[in-house]
Amino acid sequence: MLLARPVQIGHSVTQRSRGSPLTDDLGTIPFVTSSPFIEPDRFAAVRSLHGIPRMRTSTGDLGWLVSRYDDARALCADPRIGRSHTAPERAPRLWHAALFPPQSDPRQEMRQHRAWRSRLAPRFGRRSVAAWRPRVQAWADETVDDLIAAGPPADACALVAMPFSLRVILDFFGIPYADAELFHQQQTRARCPDPAEYSSTEMYAYLEALLDRKRRRPGDDAMSDLAAIEGAPRIRAMGSGFIDHTTIALRIGYGLLFLLADPAQRDLLWRTPGLLPSAVEEILRVAVPGGSWIPRYALADIEHGQTQMSAGDLVVFAFESINRDERIFPDPGRFAIDRDPNPHIAFGYGKFYCLASHLSRLMLEVILATLIRRLPGLRLAVAPEEVEVDRESVTGGLLRLPVTW
Ligand code: HEM
């Protein structure tokens, strides 16, 4: 099913900012999408501009918008792009939401990042995650049991994507499932446009108490690994979105929607389960809840092509656009589960590459395989265009996904 076609819209550069266009008439970022299947049409216009544009954000601040694949790879890998700012309380922001707050002390960032990442990465490595497959499978079976018990029709977001993601992530981190509601509430509030909705005090108090328990009685889990890291590197790790069930839950919801909304692709996958790994890659590339906007900061002056960024500037990566760059992906708007090659960078690129990329791929693959096997008749219970997008949360997602079988 053809999802989108690039739209060329007229634009004029109102003024230039350090060698690059300041494009007020392309609106503010993050762009809001009209449908889960269509990227905001301004992305095609932004990708066609010379240089990296400087855009106004929803807070009124300015940020460089990285919308093209090659720019994103180069800047993601650049050690002068980070999460911290010399004055975090005054740093330009992409949104008012609490999610992805600027960290402090840019001079220490990379050294401390290496310190925590080198300690945590082994547990998230390909082999150790592969050893988790039986456990992830058990959670998938339990989740599909609950879905079948609820009987058709049912909401696949509330009965599959969210509980499955919470169960696996909390188990992997060694966090009691009894505390799931606290985590879910905290993650949901961090994504609210109104920052007053979010308070980190309760969460940090909870995490510190948990880390204390893990220090005294370490378990074979990610929180025990974190508890073994001292001082600032641990704080930075916690500030990097370390425990995140929502991102994978939203992606499972969107992946299911894209599959079930396209009978030809759905039938191809149901007929050819061997295509599942490649279907997972295409879901990661193009089924992108909320556009996957990630704010970063220039830690030093950077000259990138004709664009000159200054230390402290906000640099915004729009992964939905980056992975629909027509220079890299033929027919980028088409959802094709057998797309090959598929060099998407949905998990980022370089130093901050997603720590949980292997775990997320495993979760997507196992839950889809379990649904295909146990519910051969799974389909949408409404027309695709009736599926509602969550316009409140800055990371988007679906309000619900009605399915039947
Ligand atoms: C489909 C699901 C997911 C996607 C698409 C995704 C995507 C990303 C992206 C784009 C980055 C930033 C990369 C950069 O700046 O270059 C990132 C970083 C990160 N992600 Fe994920 N993520 C997913 C799931 C998860 C989950 C489930 C967790 C944890 C349980 C997680 C933990 C992290 C951490 C800790 C980082 C920071 C890594 C670092 O700074 O070294 N992610 N992710």
Brief summary:
The protein is α+β, with helices and mostly antiparallel strands and 405 residues long.
What does this structure look like?
The chain is an alpha+beta fold. It has a single domain (13-404), classed as Cytochrome p450 (Orthogonal Bundle), CATH 1.10.630. The protein is 42% helix and 11% strand. Helix 3 crosses helix 10 (231-238), helix 5 (133-150) crosses helix 15 (357-374) and helix 6 (156-173) packs antiparallel against helix 11 (246-260). It contains 15 helices and 13 strands. Strands 3-4-5-11-8-6 form a six-stranded mixed beta sheet. The chain has a three-stranded antiparallel beta sheet with strand order 7-13-12. The protein has a two-stranded antiparallel ribbon with strand order 1-2. Bound molecules: protoporphyrin IX containing FE. Protoporphyrin IX containing FE (HEM) binds next to helix 11.
